[in-house]
Amino acid sequence: QVQLVESGGGLVQPGGSLRLSCAASRSINSIYSMGWYRQAPGKQRELVASVTRGGDTDYADSVKGRFTISRDNARNTVYLQMNSLKPEDTAVYYCSLDSWRGRTWGQGTQVTVSS
């Protein structure tokens, strides 16, 4: 089955930027969608951004205008560009892939926004 490898998380100051990457082990051309979720301590996992096979994107209201999801089919990779980061963005971020086989999750990467 497909494997997802995430990178790009870390510690950043408020107002800073990070770019998360999620590389899939096979072509993402035929999948239903890929997305980024996040989970903060004591909270449920929430959808941050998603992109469909057709290229349609969706964002949580809390990140709209600050985050951008994109895909590079040639590299089997999706990205999450995060700008103007706030302390409330602190969470473990998970990449997801939906296909006819079901949902696959990445390992999760910690993003901490703090002074």
Can you characterise this structure?
By secondary structure, this protein is mostly beta strands. The chain is 0% helix and 53% strand. The protein is built from no helices and 11 strands. The chain has strands spanning 4-7, 10-12, 18-24, 33-39, 46-52, 57-59, 67-72, 77-82, 91-99, 102-105, 109-113. The strands form 2 sheets. Strands 2, 4, 5, 6, 9, 10 and 11 form a 7-stranded mixed sheet that branches. It has a 4-stranded antiparallel sheet with strand order 1-3-8-7, with no helix packed on it. It starts with a strand and ends with a strand. The model has no long low-confidence stretch (mean pLDDT 96).
Quick summary:
By secondary structure, this protein is mainly beta. Helices cover 0% and strands 53% of the residues.
Average pLDDT score: 96
Instruction: Indicate the radius of gyration in whole angstroms.
Output: 13 Å
Oligomer: single chain
Based on helices, strands and strand pairing, what is the structural class? mainly beta
Determine the number of helices (DSSP H or I, runs of at least 4 residues): 0
Helix content class = under 10%
The fraction of residues assigned to DSSP E strands is: over 45%
Largest sheet, in brief, is: 7 strands, mixed
Question: Are there runs of 5+ residues with pLDDT below 50, and where?
Answer: none
Q: Which outline best applies?
A: globular
Q: What is the N-to-C succession of helices and strands?
A: EEEEEEEEEEE
Distance between the termini: 40 Å
The count of strands amounts to: 11
